Fold this sequence. Notes:
The structure is a homodimer of 182-residue chains.
Chain A: E1 7-16, E2 21-28, E3 34-41, E4 45-50, E5 57-64, E6 69-73, E7 76-78, H1 85-97, E8 99-111, E9 120-131, E10 142-147, H2 149-157, H3 164-178
Parallel strand pairs in A: 4-9
Antiparallel strand pairs in A: 1-2, 2-3, 4-7, 5-6, 5-10, 8-9
Amino acid sequence: MSSFEEKTLAKETIYNGRIIDLEVHTVSLPNGKESTRELVFHPGAVAVLAITDDDKIVTVRQYRKALKKEVVEIPAGKLEPNEDPLLCAKRELEEETGIIASTWSKLHSFYTSPGFADELVHVYLAEDLQEGSVNLDEDEFVSREDYTLDESKSLIDSLDIHDAKTIYAILMWELRKLKGQA
Amino acid sequence: MSSFEEKTLAKETIYNGRIIDLEVHTVSLPNGKESTRELVFHPGAVAVLAITDDDKIVTVRQYRKALKKEVVEIPAGKLEPNEDPLLCAKRELEEETGIIASTWSKLHSFYTSPGFADELVHVYLAEDLQEGSVNLDEDEFVSREDYTLDESKSLIDSLDIHDAKTIYAILMWELRKLKGQA
Lengths: 182, 182
């Protein structure tokens, strides 16, 4: 199969922010024509499917300015420069929920919005949880809420859970149960 | 529980693009302090889990400039202004793969990157497929590839499938099979 690669002919840096950068690239298409691509660059992130000893998923409720509403998500956070994703996952879980987990395994990594952004989210499963103390960033306001599988599925129906990584995590959890892995 | 709402005190429009807009908002936090939020606004999108009569998932291989690589995704596309998501899903599936499906059902909608973007993806299940003719946008280059469940899981392992909506769709497909729904 021929390559569909789009080579950058010119690029304009629109914005370098605290979290994201925006560039507009003029690219050559496989048919020789030109087009533009609006590209958001992001440092990447981690998310954690943490399951308690009484078989509940650990979530955090928080306000998301982009969505103009409060939502319930699995614990997550951005990677610091050169940070190992697993160490970041352990740090974010503890900061947001106080939990220290002794068993960790990688589930998947995925790009969230491949059409315009390079944000890559690494998702981990955390088990054998111990309670510690919450330590939020100074501009972070979240409250921990633990839910059963049925409760979390109801929260998807009510749109309280409304983001890709959390719905993915709940499907993984249900799939593992059905396969006898959880 | 108290509200975590972040009110906008000031906003700066950084960019109004063909696909995305970027604004930076100065917001008031629940503790009275201020912070900034970098916000990407997107028209929203649809994606389709289409299953063939011989039990394969329909995908398209395409180059994603943001990821600097070719990936395999379920058919998807952006909503036109005021477009009904189901009609958009039917249009995108036919444009990218030539397929006309006679049975449609809604799976989930989810925000892809709630930390910085309002992109909402509506995912549909399409069954009872008929072959028609492909009709791509002029700057769109994709090739259709159909895979079994096992093949699609291998493509996740090899990172050919590497985005949230496609991994979600494959989990949904496997879950439906295990529950006897597919």
